[in-house]
Amino acid sequence: MRRTSRLIRVAVGVASLALAATACGGTSGGSGDGGGDDKGLAIAYDVGGKGDQSFNDAAYAGLEKAKKEFGYKTADIEPTDGETDADKEQRLTSLAKQGYNPVIGVGFAYGPAMKAVAAKYPDTTFGIVDSVVEGKNVASLVFAENEASYLAGVAAAKATKTKTVGFVGGVNVPLIHKFQAGYEQGVKDTDPKIKVISQYLTQTAEEGGFSSPDKGKAAAEGQIEKKADVVYAAAGLSGQGVIEAAAKAKIWAIGVDSDQYKQEALAAYKDSILTSALKDIEGAVFALAKSVEDGKPLSGTHTFDLKSDGVGLSDSNPKFAEVSGAKEAVEKAKAGIVDGSIKVAAE
Description:
- By secondary structure, the protein is an alpha/beta fold.
- 35% of the residues lie in helices and 19% in strands.
């Protein structure tokens, strides 16, 4: 039997994710190659992989928390370039066969594979981030990214001096449309006169929209040339290029998913990271692992929103407090979203 321990705080209403590891991708960081039956959480990364300082790294933090809390073996594995749904299915199958439970797929791209594999392993709990997959043994973790992005838009509107701000989306898909819609609404509700320049790096993930810092940097440089002095990136690993370009031009960047001001790999640019739109992926991953450990595995759809503290806006950069009216405007907007007086568009 695995030992159980107390639940540390996680966002209300969270479901957990499960990811799998096989020869389809390289393992990293985990200790899931040994034998024995004391195996716990396994995660399979999305495009960009571990080290993106954003989405995937937040999932890894949840895995590390579970590993420390429950003292079991874990596994985490990288995606491969140009992989297919069949590759993802093989990866999830291998993890389930090895006895990992739960198995979490990080990212909507795991949807088709998760649906197929979960049906074959009814005694294993699966989790998926950013997508809804039907299944009695599947927990779907979705987030109100539009709400966090609205707050980012409010902050951008308060910080801009040129009355022009930018948005860089990694891939032109419905998930990223939520980021764009919330951000643009937050900007316009704060100051209708501000211009928002929005663009996507690629039409498909296979083209590198979530994994190409050079593409992000070039896009941000183009927006900066058009006078944008605040740029928000929802682009995974590509967002690092946006932040680099902002720092070079001495304008503001807004990070995403994790508090990118605190990321060691971005330390050289952190003074230019005004704030970050947050998603508690770490808490979601841990919550699913905790539910399995307690013998009460989560299933169904669980939504992270502002009301449950599942999304939010960071204020780690001391300079954020120096932007006139920003903190107050963000708090007012948050209260409005939570009480329902502000309705945030999702597309």
